[in-house]
Amino acid sequence: MMKTLNDYFTMNYRMEIVEDKDEGGFVVSFPELPGCITCGETVESAVENALDAKKAWLEAAMEDGIEIHEPDSLEDYSGQFKLRIPRSLHRSLAEHSKREGISMNQYCVYLLSRNDAVYSKL
Fold it and tell me: Count of alpha carbons within 13 Å of 22, Cβ hemisphere only?
């Protein structure tokens, strides 16, 4: 059965968010969708822009008959794990996430994604 734009759009493609130290703001890409990249002033706006970019990329790929690879299976991963951290780090993360206007969970995901992207290039 032929997949629709919405089928692909709702698939869980890996999103990488990296802080742009030179220009400011954040760059977002989907490694499994080559060339699908955008940016935003804040983490939130970058993620919003990324969803628009993902939709536009998928639309263009479907129109041009480009093969769209499905994301790697994530079934082996629940998306949750427990982490013990020092209280001082907990306070710092809570304060930074509040300043960014996002949940501490979103902020930690951003930090982990950013650092994971750096180390995966080494």
Answer: 1
Q: How far apart are the C-alpha atoms of 72 and 15, rounded to whole Å?
A: 12
* Alpha-carbon dihedral 89, 83, 110, 8, rounded to 10 degrees: -170
C-alpha dihedral (36, 121, 95, 103), degrees to nearest 10 = 40
Q: What is the pLDDT of residues 18-28, one digit of tens each?
A: 888 888 899 99
CA 4 to chain centre: 22
* Number of domains making up the chain: 1
For 40, phi then psi, to 5°, come to -165, 160
| Structural domain boundaries enclosing 16 | 5-120
Of the candidates 91, 96, 99, 121, which has an alpha carbon nearest to the alpha carbon of residue 111?
A: 96
Could you tell me the pTM of the whole model?
Answer: 0.60
Write the CATH number for 71.
3.30.160.250
**CA 73 – CA 82 distance, rounded (Å):** 22
Which helix H or strand E contains 29, and what residues bound it? Answer: strand 26-29
